[in-house]
Amino acid sequence: MGTKLSQHNHDNAQDYTDVPSDPALRVKALESLLIEKGLVDPVALDVLVDTFENRVGPRNGAQVVARAWVDSAYKQRLLDDGTSAIAEFGYSGGQGEKLTVVENTPSVHNVLVCTLCSCYPWPVLGLPPTWYKSAAYRSRTVIDPRGVLSELGLDLPNDVEVRVWDSNATSRYFVLPERPKGTESTSEADLATLVTRDTMIGVAKVASPSLGGVS
Amino acid sequence: MNGIHDMGGMHGLGEIGYRENEPGFHEPWELRAYALVQAMGTGGLRSHIERISAADYLRMGYYERWFTALVSRTIETGVITLSEVESGRADPTSVKATTALTPADARELPFRTPQAEQDIELTPQFHVGDRVRGRNIHPTTYTRMPRYTRSKMGVVERDRGVFNLPDSEGVSADPKPQHVYLIRYTADELWGYEASTNSSLYIDMWEDYLEPA
Questions:
Q1: By mean pLDDT, which of A127-141, B13-27, B86-100, B166-180 is the weakest?
Q2: Which of the listed residues A40, A111, B40, B175 has the most CB atoms within 10 Å of its CB?
Q3: A175 pairs with which residues across the strands?
Q4: Within its chain, how far is the Cα of B198 from the centroid?
Q5: CA–CA distance, A118 with A107 (Å, rounded to integer)
Q6: ipTM of the predicted structure?
Q7: Helix H segments across B134-196?
Q8: Distance between CA A33 and CA A52 in Å, rounded?
Q9: Structural domain of residue B92, as residue ranges?
Q10: 3-state SS class at A159
Q11: Last residue of a domain, one of B47, B79, B110
């Protein structure tokens, strides 16, 4: 069992990282090795993969946002203590301690980044998209937030304050986007369908349904 | 350390590659690697990611970095040997380990909220509204203080409570619990005349990263 990880001998672990090879094969080989050594239970791995694939994701966050839009008491709890407020939906987990919810308003726009790695509010948004983890997004969002947002299709007037949240520590951030106009009579369930992952990172606005989904 | 991972404010790092509503992963091996990392524990892995050489770091994708760090840590801690990694087979003389994570644990693990906050009473050195300056430090080991905050002046927005200093991980036996503060910096202070108009930046800073301004 086990695919050979490298065709070369190396003096130390660091050299190992220099060897280009198919990551899929290397992952499979390490998985086999760790299972053979009794360090990993293959059923536990399948459970984890299923969780990341199917049980978490931005639909969680969208439900939280829709609730906050229709229930002002919930919104206040969410802004006061994000971790407790998402737990009302049963959402919890790693990268969820000290969840801080930042509210977008007509005068303040919040956007999330992690310059040092890719910290992300996992319990409400799931795994981050590739662009959020890109070197360009991580490096530029702090020095040129308006430029980055504009490149991603969101032009903000200068009288709107832009707040950048660099998630470097234990706190994770989560953007409560603005409720779009024309949704006063829309149900909570329908509102949740309007909320995209990118609006909760703060690189887009929630589109008004009357605009046919164009933000 | 002043590594490539500390990239806030850099230019020339390519395209963002934005795709609307892009999924969190693209290939099955990525999730498999991530699950392996979770099953083996994430402790100390960021520090191993940061020790990947700059050229490799930029070439690798996110999941490949996690995977590389996992290999690096398991070898460093002696859990597996390099020859085992290279051959893909367990050393026949090694003792079979007891699996750390059972399927039942795996069902709970992703939903367990970590408790990093320390239940310790410490007198905070700073208070909401205080002006503080990032210390001009250049540790060669792990830190969560991005270099763009060094020597910059900000204002304390919130006291987050007491947390262990990440810089002490693997370096000091003392976890150095201390207050963490949410600090607001104006874009002008951080970036001078190049700054985005009417913008500010919020970031959590451990007390050791700050001095009175």
A1: B86-100
A2: A111
A3: A102
A4: 29
A5: 27
A6: 0.95
A7: 187-191
A8: 23
A9: 28-110
A10: coil
A11: B110
Output Rg (C-alpha) for chain A, integer angstroms.
Answer: 21
Q: Is residue B187 part of a domain?
A: yes
Instruction: List the single residue in A with minimal CA-CA distance to B113.
Output: A93
Burial of residue A209 (number of CB atoms within 10 Å: 0-12, 13-18, 19+): middle
Q: Which residue type sits at B1?
A: M
Torsion of CA A182, A187, A188, A189, to 10 degrees: -120
* Nearest Cα to Cα of residue A160 among A110, A114, A106: A106
Question: CA–CA separation, A5 vs B90, rounded Å?
Answer: 13
- Say how far apart CA A177 and CA A198 lie, in whole Å: 10
From residue A134, how far is each of A120, B13, B111 by CA, in Å? 13, 9, 26
In chain B, residues with a C-beta closer than 8 Å to the C-beta of A200 are none
- Cβ contacts (< 8 Å) between B117 and chain A: which residues? 97-98, 170
What's the whole-number mean pLDDT along residues A119-139? 94
CA A139 to CA A131: how far, in whole Å?
12
Domain edge (last residue) among B110, B143, B175: B110
Provide the annotated active-site residues of A.
114, 117-119
Tell me the pLDDT tens digit for each residue of A179-199. Answer: 999 999 999 999 999 999 999
Mention every residue, 6+ apart, whose C-beta is less than 8 A from residue B37.
B45, B66, B67, B69, B70
B85 and B157 in a single domain? The answer is no
Banded pLDDT at A96 (limits 50, 70, 90): low
**Greatest alpha-carbon span in chain A:** 67
CATH number at residue B206: 2.30.30.50
The verdict on a CB contact (< 8 Å) between A115 and B6 is: yes
